[in-house]
What does this fold into?
Amino acid sequence: MTDLTKLTLAEARDGLRRKDFRAVELTEAHNAAVAGAKALNAYVHPTPESALAMAEAADARLSEGEAPDLCGLPIGVKDLFAVEGVPTQAASRILEGFLPPYDSTVTAKLRAAGAVFLGKLNMDEFAMGSSNETSVYGPAISPWRRKGETKPLTPGGSSGGSSAAVSADLALAALGTDTGGSIRQPAALTGIVGLKPTYGRVSRWGVVAFASSLDQAGPMTKTVRDAAIFLKAFAGFDPKDSTSAEISVPDYEAALGGSIRGKRIGIPKEYRVDGLSGEVQSLWDHGALKLREAGAELVEVSLPHTKYALAAYYIVAPAEASSNLARYDGVRYGRRAKLAQGDGIADLYEKTRAEGFGREVRRRVMIGAYALSAGFYDAYYLRAQKVRALIKRDFDEAFKQVDAILTPTTPSPAFGLGEKTNDPVAMYLEDVFTVPVNLAGLPAVSLPAGLAQQGTPLGLQLIGRPFDESGLLALAEVLERDSEFSAKPARWW
Amino acid sequence: MSAALREPEPKYISGAEGEWEVVIGMEVHAQVASEAKLFSGASTSFGAEPNANVSLVDAAMPGMLPVVNAFCVEQAVRTGLGIAARINLRSGFDRKNYFYPDLPQGYQISQFKTPVVGEGEVLVELEPGVARKVGVERIHLEQDAGKSIHDLDPESSFVDLNRSGVALMEIVSKPDMRSAEEAGAYLRKLRTILRYLGTSDGDMEKGNLRADVNVSVRRPGGPLGTRCEIKNVNSIRFVMQAVETEARRQIAILEDGGEIDQETRLFDPRKLETRAMRSKEEAQDYRYFPDPDLPPLVLTEAFVEGIRAGLPELPDAKTARLVAQYGVTDYDASVLAAERASADFFEEAAQGRDGKSVANWIINELFGRLNKEGLDLAASPISTAQIGGVVDLVAKGDISGKIAKDLFEILWTEGGDPAALVEARGMRQVTDEGAIEAAVDAVIAANPEKVEQAKAKPSLAGWFVGQAMKAMGGKANPQALNELVKRKLGVE
It folds into this structure.
């Protein structure tokens, strides 16, 4: 039998329906792959036994017929999602021992659809990071290596466990979340597809919050078709999330394969930033050309406030985080610091949070608290919100002329672990192309576009109109087909 | 309420060195009468086991999100309309960030920048014809905190989250009050309005209505002084005492040449003093910002108008109507209108009867007795039909006022139909002139010397009335008896 872990989500779905194999076999293959890939540190809490139980239940459902698409398909779940009875720590020490008595809406939908949960995936602590190095579990490691090197590379972040798992065939698909690029950047660096849906498309209920106005869960998959299948299973309005949109979810898969003739694709001139490598530039040009060959029209567009996006993001996101993370206080759940005789409530807070949060989280909580403090609010938070409105307006203007915008996902390919850890600003620049999309609440997909000279993948990003994930996926599939990217990392682990 | 209202005369406090005026503003926290909390579906029932009414949202579990309870929003709008306030069709929720164990989220969701209700007004009647208009700055919705309990264990503190997330309306007045009496009357009036509207039960004993009182003093006509905020005062009497106590404290400091520190204070009703809680320097930076989990609260005109259309008659309007419709005094009308239930009781009893008499019976006899027994009107053993029956019997002359009081006593303790009781127990007064005359004649015949005295001193006629009434077992029609005695004695 072929290695079942090499299948795409769509192939596995179809294979289960043809009874080529059973969900239990599919799950066993994945459990084995997970067990054999400890070196990647992608799974921080594998759940092979409950995965098998879920697979058995899925097989029963499949044999009755009429099972949902996801039934019996093994997936990985980023540690940011609450999964009932499974440790959920957001890769932070402060949530040590926390077992949620509830499922996030997303995982509940997937559970109801019969998906098989292989375990919790590594990530940057509270999704703050672009390299997975801020995780309390240590970094996930990319299955990719530079040509002729053994130096460990980042799988990107914050959804680094998800990208490592999907690219190393440790899951058919994985859940990620994206606040400033945390789905798209890791997808780009590991040669997979990652989609950040429109803000409001996917429920945030039960997902540990980083920055509420930016966070959005999305699919990380091997193909565009898989992203379409996977997203449909967990998208949609949730009355428990006041920011989720009451808009019906289309059949994304059905939208694939159509013609893109006459579609107008914007190329934003402001994205030709300093530090953009020549190979990224040429892949971008190449992608644009492919879309034109497929019948699309290329239009240069201007997003004039792009250069302020990172600065605005690094006010808004930490400001919200400083408040969202206040609940981790050692009082009700998670880790509580040992107190000395005579310590009071302030000591409980200070000690718990000092030892519970890592450096990057502490940095952002402090930046955020500062940006919101009396006397600085107007200069920082309010101004950042104004910039955000301008960035959104830039996109609104651009979308009067074009149907989608094509950009690189990252300015450069995967870097080595430790290479940027002491330079937060260099790390933040990883998100220069992805952050504006979150600020504007738009959907965007990253897909593999080719290999860099160092032998690791690079990605292109397509940005769409609000709630036009269908159109975006259709375009992405054309690019995917024409780029004929099929590289896989050579197994070394 | 009658149309011509005067502002109260200035009421100054005499210090050692002249007169002072106290300036008062109030922030009243009224718990919204809702079965579910403001942002979670958890119950708000009072007196539940600690931490029984706590949802995942209230405990701020990771990933939990607030969803605004539309019913609570409706109550806030209703309250706003009840004080003729502007309703903001677009308002928002903000986070007030601070750490405390009974605040699980690490922030309180409140309305800082734009409240759902804007400026309104409460007319506070102080005595007939005298009222203070107290401006209301805003009403906003916010979450209550839980409760920290520090005295159950020497080592640990405990937290009860039952209240955590319960909806409060914060009603912020302008600094328009000028005496402790006005402060007390304002709070009483506000509570009456809330109860009329049904938007809060205003139960201060359960902590469902609490006031933060801002107090400052100044020389009459002078600039405003520095204010202190007295937190969490939980009865009308304490509000009045706190104002008085705090004003005197401030006056003493100022007359000593000192300055008032702007600070938050607590009122101790046992020691009758206020104590500093924290100063302005210690004031926290709450880092307010719009709650990104909650989109702006947008209301439609139709929603607001629908609530307006369903508003009940409010206390001021009801008072005015009771005066106009039933001819009761301003005072009686405002006593009856203080609670919707008592006004309803009155109106039911007054149907087809003289309103003034019914009001007298209800206010003097029934309320007096309920008060003495510590009972609510709802627990009254006497019904509107019974009160009405008593008034009817008096009006028809079947019983005298004095007998009526005896009848009231029987109704209170034994119950029954007033008319039937009067018949069965022979309480009907005698109006038959012949019977009364016989009794009067007998008294006159037996007391010739008194008759002589009475002719010289007509006020002694009352003695004959009393004797004859006694002889008739109290059942003589007093008016007929009076007239007969006077005629027989030849006095006027």
